[in-house]
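note to self: the first set is below, dont mix up w the second
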Amino acid sequence: MDTNPPKFKTATTANERLQNLKNTFETKYGKSPLFFACAPGRVNLIGEHIDYCGYSVLPMAIEQNILAAVSVNNSGTIQLANTKPQYNDFTVSCSEDIAIDRDNPQWYYYFLCGVKGIQEKFGIAQLSGMLCVVDGTIPPSSGLSSSSALVCCAGLVTMEANHKSLSKVALAEICAKCEHYIGTEGGGMDQSISFLAERGTAKLIEFQPLRATDVKLPDGAVFVISNCCVEMNKAASSHFNIRVVECRIATKMLAQARSLNSGRLLKLAQVQTELKASLEEMLALVDEVLHPESYSREEICKALGITSEQFSTELLSANTQHVTHFKLHQRAKHVYSEAARVLRFKSVCDSEPAESIQLLGDLMNQSHASCRDLYECSCPELDQLVNICLKSGAVGSRLTGAGWGGCAVSMVPSEKVESFLQAVREAYYLPDSRRAAMEKQSLFVSKPGGGAAIFLEE
């Protein structure tokens, strides 16, 4: 059911974090906030790098979130501050066009993506002035979607401050689109779960049209998140967009091989839909049409009958213009096989067979192997961490989020959780002083949390 984000009346004195944020806000601005807004991070249980290809994913929100305290005024400016001293303040005019510097992805540009998304949706010429202090508990650049949560929180704040009303689905779609201003060509999973999450359940998120279905996770197991402590900022590097581009080119090549109109097809899911094929048939088509060796620009242009200029403008993004070789077979093979694993994962959760925990663990392990070997979005530290998690008692463990660093998610039988945490602590975190210092916020059990919301003081 598509409703608006909830509004809760709350006593800040009953919530230490809200009270601390209120105190910080009052100290900084000399007045009290009018309202608070929060948007959670997420952990993707399975379905990596396939949302931007048009396929369903299976995330859950986590307890960690972005929380903002806000007051509204007619000053003509939006003033942003962060409780973490390493993040600088920023002020922007309400009457000028909001400029987002994608070559310099600072925290406040993510916030301004959300502001700009709402401004454009409603055609607001003069935004309300705002004072904001932002507080985040999601580890940054960890694959738990801190950046998208910040965009979603900003979208919600801007909507509320300007007396507008939007459903959760509309907000998710706007925030997915406006995050592209920072240069990351994501697919919408992170924003969707941030708004559509509900406490106690994971969600199957489907696109075109956007919808979310509850997925009951099995009793007898919990999900543990562990950060490998290698940071990966999607907007500051081109790894992520290179994969988006490789999937886009693979889409065109497969469409061309089957005489489809490749001009309007951009996502691998669209080829499957046009061909009315199963995922297994798509995997066979990938083996038949695409060779495992890298493709050069020249070979792709020749196959698609396009010029080098068209290749650069129509297929590449701003930060992938330098790429000369593309692995199409491996990327498409990952996407179609991962899409099938998501559907199997949901099917196991729905039918609750006796061996469901083992079956889900196997799917997670297959997913990690595919991310590591076919999509090449892991890193040595993540692979080491996943191996330690499996040796420490997890039935399944895989990287989650974009990869190239960040977190692993592990499915652990409930009775083994304490011994699992201790074993991972000893094998991965404690031998390294930098990791040991980060361990408290890097290794934790996660339960499915609720979605974005607004809080008003009682």
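second set (the one i keep forgetting abt)
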Amino acid sequence: MPREFRAPQPRAGKASSDLELYFSVFLFCSISSILLGYLALQGVKSVLGSRLRRRSVAVRDALEKRITGRTKERPVIIGFFHPYCNAGGGGERVLWTAIRATQQKYPHVICAVYSGDIDATAEAILSKVQLRFGIDLDTNRVDIVFLKKRHLVSAERWPRFTLAGQSAGSIPLVYEAISALVPDIFIDTMGYAFTLPVVSFLLDIPVAAYVHYPTISTDMLEKVPCQRWAKLIYWRAFAKVYSWVGSAADVVMTNSSWTRNHILSLWGKGRDPAVVYPPCDTKALRELDIVRERERNILCLAQFRPEKDHALLLKAFAKLLKDVDPAMATGPEKVNLILIGSVRGAEDAQRVGSLKKLAQKLGVNANVEFVCDAPWPEVIRRLGKAWVGANAMWNEHFGIGVVEYMAAGLIPVVHDSAGPKMDIVVPLDAQPTGFHATDEASFAQAFHQALTLPKPEVNAMRARARAQSDKFSEKVFDDAWLNRTARLLELESKMRAARRT
């Protein structure tokens, strides 16, 4: 009888021992890889950081000599990353008002602005600040650092994957900036959040962000149709990365409650963003007479950019004249639409041309006036004459122009969303301070309501609107801005001391 063959069985103890050995080797390799990666990153940080600081020595020395003998405190250079600082819009008013407040409070601080406006000189830029905004600066303590790679953050440079492209483009642009001048504090005032971790990692200095508008928001994600799943995945992935880069900021400021809510949801509650309402020149505007009779004009004060939706205003205005109240087209009841804004370049100029063609197509060109790049005194004069102030942008992050309407005594008619809805055109003492609208029909109706209010009601609403505008004065902005600047200066001292140990 043949013997039964049995295959040898592995011993359980040996298999378990082999598994433990493999796991130990894997764990060792993983930890070693992480440590080596960390050491490599620290090496890159040390080498690049030291190289950048050496490059800046001569430039920093020259800047610091400007205030030699004027203060006993150690000079501090604050770098403001604002590649379009010469655009002349609301974001630029924030930038230059912040610099003025910083100069007035801290004589030992030098403000450097990283600008891509290479078609202008530093003198021309600062002259425009005074002309456009009426802001006087100590030019000896302002330095314009010109950048040649601004095209990397231009929307035209990235016809596809624009959000990711512009964000990625900001990284070599900010590297160019800190290669030219290493600051002691870095503040992004234009919304390029991807610059924050780069500067924080390489230079180990305080970084801050003043956020006008989140690069991506939950509103944007909700508007993507389910059928466009690829775009939804792209935007959700981008939102995750945006959330990570935002966490690099030491201090975060937002310009409205709407922006704060979105930054909280994206960057996390640990950022503790403060609402610092943009400064509005309400002092000069409050001197305008709000009781005297005004011209029947609807005025829009906004840069000629696509998101401002001037086309919606033109269509609503045409509906007002043709459908709601044809008597307002001509004669004693005639109403005009005045569009005032800055033109940043050829693209904006082309957009103005397209809007003029639209006005002609709609048959309202005789009632529409375009005013481009008007100096501030001319803007004030226009505001003092107009009846209604209009804003049609969906999810306008704040709306400095709306506040200026209210301070000047205009009846605001604004889009029913974001800053104008949540912060600005809100009831005062349970009474309205203006009107909200969403589309052509509702804007046309709101225009008609504002233009046909009885005089006592008009005067009462104008008074309430002006009182509401006090909430957004330059003094309120200065106080809030300087509160955060003090925190950054304190952090800068601590980080400087830590680097030396």
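remember for set 2: The first strand starts at residue 76 and ends at 81.
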